Amino acid sequence: MWKAFYYLPAAYRNQFLTPKALKALQEKRLKYLVDLAYRNTSLYRSKFKAAGITPSDITTLDDITKIPLVRKQEIKASFPEGMVTPGFSEANCKVGTTSGTSGNILRILFDYEAWSRLNAVALRNYFAHGVRPWHRFCIVCSSPAEYESVSASPFSRTVGILEKEPESLAEDIRIINPFVVGAHPTTLVGLCKAIEKTDISGIQPGIVLIGGEVAYPSWREYIEKTLKTTTINKYGATEVNSIAWECSHGSMHLDADSVIVEFIKEGEQVAPGELGEVVVTNLWNVAMPFIRYRLGDVAVPLDELCSCGRGLPIIKELEGRLDDVIVLPSKELVPSTRICPLFHRIPQVAEFGIVQDSISHVAIRIVPHGEFTEHAESTLRTRIQNVLGSSVDIDITVVDQLERTTSSKFKRIRRTFDVQVL
Ligand SMILES: [Zn+2]
Prior knowledge:
Blueprint: H1 3-14, H2 19-40, H3 42-51, H4 72-78, E1 94-97, E2 107-110, H5 112-127, E3 137-141, H6 144-150, E4 158-162, H7 166-176, E5 180-183, H8 185-197, E6 207-210, H9 217-227, E7 230-237, E8 241-246, E9 252-254, E10 259-265, E11 268-269, E12 276-282, E13 293-299, E14 314-315, E15 320-321, E16 326-327, E17 333-334, H10 336-344, E18 349-358, E19 361-368, H11 374-388, E20 393-398, E21 413-415
Parallel strand pairs: 3-4, 3-5, 5-6, 6-7, 18-21, 19-20
Antiparallel strand pairs: 1-2, 7-8, 8-9, 9-14, 10-11, 10-12, 12-13, 13-15, 16-17, 18-19
Helix pairs in contact: 1-5, 2-3, 7-8, 8-9, 10-11
Bound molecules: zinc ion.
Residues 247, 249, 251, 253, 306, 308, 310 line the site of zinc ion.
């Protein structure tokens, strides 16, 4: 764990490298990893062979597009024999576990060198916001798998708590009295509502880390106002650790010195400003290489540098999960960030859920706040129709409550069918 501090100076310097130097670093590590994975793992070897390539075909960073994409199910099916580098096992690695339904959990082995480097990158990002090793963290976890991974934090004063009813969650956080609170935005909004409703006081963290789902600006304002603090957006995944984080200038920087992030649509890298599926390559994990791994999130890359002086590339905020987007008959993707704010602007909507049950039909359920008038419905319908276009039919139903999925986490957009758009 302490080795993360050994790698911290390098991680600190790397964020100010030029884009060209960062690309050179990525290219060098990519070539090493490709060769390693080809020689040692049957999964990558068979995928390379199927694509008619060998490691000698990967000489520049641009050649990465020759490598086939890999899905979670393939890795799960090949674990451990076909995916783990010989010499590594759960006995001599750090083990991470992805969240998900029980049949879909993936175990990930990190060799300790990689684990330390990845944690150094995460530390660098916290340091930029004034967090220091002696500060207490409180991370609210939505699943036992997440709870398990929190215990591996390089910050020794990290307390993980499992999500519970907002009132008792608020009480727990008050007692822990952390400098950093980390949670899903939905959880934080529930927490803030509980704080407003009850007389719980004394919760005033130095910063709030938000992640795990899309954070709408209006939610962030509400959380910041209620907790009298600032919110920092972070984006990571168990498979590769930190992927992107928000600097004090408000840009989401990619951790380009530890992960290659691509944005893919229809098999090609998208142009800057376009929405694509996030595909990651972990540059350091030798024990279990992740090369062109499909994460299932969607985001928009940008072709500009931040005024903070960091050379790390930036993205527009995360736009949600691939299964959270609405797919139009034209195959255009409409992310939740374009749909959900339409509901927030209508005061008669307390809660809402959207189910796309066919390529041309969307069913919307509204839990009203007071009376849901005809005027409110027609306003909402017009706004949604403007975004989705005339090729999608919309049904709006008023209900008393919404069906919840696992735990208290609620998916606002759900698609009941799969489409191959990427
Ligand atoms: Zn910046």
